[in-house]
Amino acid sequence: MEAAVRLSAGTCNALDVLQRDGRVLVRKTYREKLKNYEERWPLSRRDAEAGAFRLLDRLIREKSHRCLAVPCLYPEFDRPDTLTMDYIDAPPLGTLLEAPGPPASDLPGGEPLRDLFRLLSELRKIAPEDLEGQDPSFLDALSRQDQILTCMLRNKHGGSVPTGAVRGGQTGPDCLALGDLSLNNLLWDGSRLWLLDLECVHWGWPGYDEGQLLAMAQAQRGRRGQAWYRTLNQAFGENVRARGHAQGGRPEGSELAAAVRAWQASFLTYYTHR
User: Fold this and answer.
1) pLDDT > 70: what percent of the chain?
2) 153-181 burial: b if 16+ Cβ within 10 Å, else e
3) DSSP codes, 132-178
4) Which candidate, 23, 63, 37, 62, places its Cα nearest to that of 199?
5) Who has greater pLDDT, 129 or 120?
6) Does the model's pTM come out above 0.85?
7) Residues contacting residue 268 through CB under 8 Å, at least 6 positions apart
8) Rounded (10°) angle between helices 222-243 and 208-218
9) What sign does the dihedral 113-58-122-155 (CA atoms) show?
10) How far apart are CA 98 and CA 75, in angstroms?
11) Are 152 and 37 in contact (CB under 8 A)?
12) Nearest to 68 by CA among 193, 197, 213
């Protein structure tokens, strides 16, 4: 028995809340066009997001990130071009930051944010050869996600990688980026941050995700947003200091910080002038 209630619909994707076998689930239906973009995007976004959820779930468990989580997937309930997952009854960070009133304890503090930045550091180490043995549909989807990077660079960064984000000799993207780490894609249930909307995962540049998150928090108005940005910025600084210098060709320490700040400045221009 399945009862569906439309959660949201628009120019992005359709989300339906399902009551299925005693569970409350969300079924996401992918569309060819996404909000703010005119191009048709490959429907491989469904396979890319499914693979990203499984990869993050494995990293979270292996690295004991107790303050992070991703929804469980239910492929047995999927239809073509859909992904079915747990419904997470928690508000997004964007909603919490826009609430009136002074800074409060209902916002994530140091440990959840440190876990988040550590997870991004682990993603940054992943190269194409490291994904051998993964689900072939995930690997195929990643190989066709070039449109995502092209659209994002043009719409949010004027069509190019910001000066300072490219380290010496780098000619192209070389690590996994989630691609849409916005405040509305992070839910906070009081103890864990839930990562959602991973369909924009792609081979990207180091610091892209951190720069987007920091810029969106910096652009927040009001006392709550400003205070939380300081907390977020402090957690990022602690992660940079803990990671040290470049290791195995991957930027860390001051080199990573420079790349993140370049992306942050470019994203901030986009968020404050759109």
Assistant:
1) 88
2) beebbeeebbeebbbeeeeebbbbbbbbb
3) TTS-HHHHHHHHTTHHHHHHHHHHHHTTSPPTTSSPTT--S--EEE-
4) 37
5) 120
6) yes
7) 215, 218, 219
8) 150
9) negative
10) 35
11) no
12) 193
Which residue type occupies 216? M
pLDDT tens track for 43-75: 788 999 999 999 999 999 999 999 999 999 999
β-bridge mates for residue 131, sequence order: none
Q: What is the residue-wise DSSP string for 32-65?
A: SS-TT--SPPPTTHHHHHHHHHHHHHHHHHHTT-
Tokens of 129: 């050869």
List beta partners, residue 181: none
Q: How does pLDDT run across 67-107, given as a tens digit for each residue?
A: 999 999 999 999 888 999 999 999 999 999 988 877 777 89
Say yes or no to pLDDT of 247 above 70: no
The residue type found at 39 is: E
